[in-house]
Amino acid sequence: MRRITRIATVGIASAALALSATACGGKSSSSSSSESSSDGGGKVAIAYDIGGRGDQSFNDAAYAGLAKAEKDLKVKGTEAEPTEGEGDPDKVSRLTSLARAGNNPVIGVGFAYAPAIAQVAPKFPNTTFGLIDDTSKTGKNIANLVFNEEQGSYLAGVAAAKVTKSNIVGFIGGVETPLIKKFEAGYVQGVKDTKKNVTVKVQYLTQPPDFGGFSKPDLGKAAAQGQLDAGADVIYAAAGLAGSGSIEAVSKAGKWAIGVDSDQYNQKGLAAYKAAILTSVTKDVEDAVFNVIKSVKDGKPQSGEVRYGLAKNGVGLAASNPAYIKMTDVTAAVEKAKAAIIAGTIKVKTAP
Questions:
Q1: Of 26, 110, 315, 336, which sits 20 to 30 A from 212 (CA to CA)?
Q2: From CA 256, how far away is CA 93, in angstroms rounded?
């Protein structure tokens, strides 16, 4: 697997980018044609969101899908890292270079890639572009891979309300965007439906166009400490890499953290704090990435909205922490809520 580092992505407009990658596999080729045809899914690429691989969360879940595809489908993967403070032109250059190099599909990890994919995809009609977490930009060769984050977050709210002793819980969002507000909405609703007198403290780390709230653990740590000082004993952070800072602060305070996107209890980078990770709201980004790669490999590329919800385990609540599993009253309440959401008797809000 080839990994294009953050440094290598500066000046990515040139197709020579393929030669500046960190060596993680074989050599890459490039094409001068702006309409490269599919090579049968033999070469695939993902372009990471803010924070990059190693965030113990969203990007790492996408990487897991790529790694699975390399193993099971025998494709050759390329990873491209973001640069701090980059704009849409940088993303356009990155995606263009990856497509010119013959990768198919090319997957943009995160809604921030929507404008760039909308610009690049028409130039490569024979290449499938996977766009995770966004449906605003569509096209015949764009697969919009989206999730019902609010449903998993509702279950987290149920768990938080059941375990809190102070009747104060927290939510930390990385950046105040419509996507992250889905997490907030579901969580708050789950808390209130379970225990009305619980106070939910909500804080966002940054506001658009500053997306640093997804990449700075120190911001997450400070926000969590503020909520802990205000009495919160359960904190759910939907903040990418910044969420690791929140988990650290919560762990050191001896309280409960709720992870996001990946099952963070099992993330090696968070092993020191795993005992404090009650559960995690999972998004099956791994399967979404794998499935779009497989669809191209099979000659039936995905297109349009591909939604992953609670009914098909596209989102959910992890049960890896033995302490959580032993809380039978909590797990029973979560399972009851899950069944009601799937049955349609609980309608989960997508905005606060």
A1: 315
A2: 42
> By C-alpha distance, which of 22, 21, 18 is closest to 102?
18
Contact of 101 with 78, CB cutoff 8 Å: yes
Question: Hey, how many other C-beta atoms are within 10 angstroms of the C-beta on 275?
Answer: 14
- State the Cα–Cα distance between residues 175 and 162, nearest whole angstrom: 27
Q: Residue with structure tokens 């849409």? A: 88
Output phi, psi for 80, to 5 deg. Answer: -125, 130
106-108 and 256-261 as β-strands: parallel, antiparallel, unpaired? unpaired
In whole angstroms, give the CA distance from residue 138 to residue 118.
7
Angle at 307 between CA 325 and CA 161, to 5 degrees: 35
Q: Are strands 277-283 and 315-317 parallel, antiparallel or unpaired?
A: antiparallel
Rounded to 5°, the CA angle 199-204-205 comes to 135
Contact (CB, 8 A) for 69 and 294 = yes
Give Cα 210 distance to the centre of its chain.
Answer: 18
Tell me the mean pLDDT in the region 250-270. Answer: 96
pLDDT in tens, 108-159: 999 999 999 999 999 999 999 999 999 999 999 999 999 999 999 999 999 9
User: How confident is the model over 43-55, as a mean pLDDT?
Assistant: 92
DSSP β-ladder status, 142-147 and 304-308: parallel
Q: What is the pLDDT of residues 195-214, one digit of tens each?
A: 999 999 999 999 999 999 99
The average pLDDT across 243-272 equals: 96
